[in-house]
Amino acid sequence: MSQTETLILDGNAVADGIKAQLFARIAGLAEKGITPCLATILVGDDPSSATYVRMKGNACRKLGMTSIRVDLPADTTTEELVAAIRELNADKSVHGILLQHPVPHGIDERAAFEAIAIEKDVDGVTMLGFAQNAFGFADYPSCTPAAVMAILDYYQLPVQGRHAVVIGRSPILGKPVSAMLLNADATVTTCHSRTTDLPAIVKLADIVVAAVGKPNFVQGDWIKPGAVVLDAGYNPGNVGDVDYEACLANAAAITPVPAGVGPVTIATLLKHTVDAAEKFGTYRKE
């Protein structure tokens, strides 16, 4: 397939569709005195993490949601972070909790994730949330994997019976998206940067999900002609995990970076927060 025929999977269009459906739901909650509220926790002063948190806060405000930002110093201990999360768990006006990761060295990130109450785990980071996703009934699956599935659905790209190759095995991206594709009746091969003869395995894929965290890792000659390529990576300089220009030549459809999976991830986070507000909402405290 030539480059001019390749379908560019516009994440902004998918995200706008998700957010358009949220306006009426948020208005309905407002009539009951409920404002969906997402609490974000940022530990340390990493500029990229700060930018992500700010983007999520701005996205909330544009939809008429509330965003609470909790900033903690880089020398915060695991115990102090867990205590802050438990305070948010107890606050009935907070419907979703997002811990921006990675956290500074010295903090037990898994212990912090596990402190998030399952009903507020809108980013799907807890072990229980992971297990529910694997079984196919998570209320709030991990947002980036859910975004990948939303793009496939929006563009009506077939998954059933297709061979999907996922490059990456993190507990909040590679593993959960593998489970979601499997639950959608794809045949899934989960690979990683140490997989033997990785290019040959990727070349068998009808659907490629790149989630390895290495810039321009997936090369153009790895892609089978007609494959769908979803780049879930984001590296400094607005660079994904896929060599975009090289992969265009063979891909039938491909996500760009930026404006691919990223905007849909944020929209999914907002949707999960609204879902939680509808399920567990209460009147906001003045």
TrEMBL record:
The keyword Amino-acid biosynthesis applies. It comes from the Bacteria. Signal peptide: none annotated. One of its GO terms (cellular component) is cytosol. NADP(+) binds at G168, R169, S170. Residues 142-279 form the Tetrahydrofolate dehydrogenase/cyclohydrolase NAD(P)-binding domain. Residues 9-123 form the Tetrahydrofolate dehydrogenase/cyclohydrolase catalytic domain. One of its GO terms (molecular function) is methenyltetrahydrofolate cyclohydrolase activity. One of its GO terms (biological process) is methionine biosynthetic process. Pathway: One-carbon metabolism; tetrahydrofolate interconversion. Keywords: Amino-acid biosynthesis, Histidine biosynthesis, Hydrolase, Methionine biosynthesis, Multifunctional enzyme, NADP, One-carbon metabolism, Oxidoreductase, Purine biosynthesis. Its EC number is 1.5.1.5, 3.5.4.9. InterPro entries: Aminoacid_DH-like_N_sf, NAD(P)-bd_dom_sf, THF_DH/CycHdrlase, THF_DH/CycHdrlase_cat_dom, THF_DH/CycHdrlase_NAD-bd_dom. It catalyses: (6R)-5,10-methenyltetrahydrofolate + H2O = (6R)-10-formyltetrahydrofolate + H(+); (6R)-5,10-methylene-5,6,7,8-tetrahydrofolate + NADP(+) = (6R)-5,10-methenyltetrahydrofolate + NADPH. Belongs to the tetrahydrofolate dehydrogenase/cyclohydrolase family. Homodimer. HAMAP family: THF_DHG_CYH. Catalyzes the oxidation of 5,10-methylenetetrahydrofolate to 5,10-methenyltetrahydrofolate and then the hydrolysis of 5,10-methenyltetrahydrofolate to 10-formyltetrahydrofolate. This is Bifunctional protein FolD. It comes from Paenibacillus sacheonensis. The gene is folD.
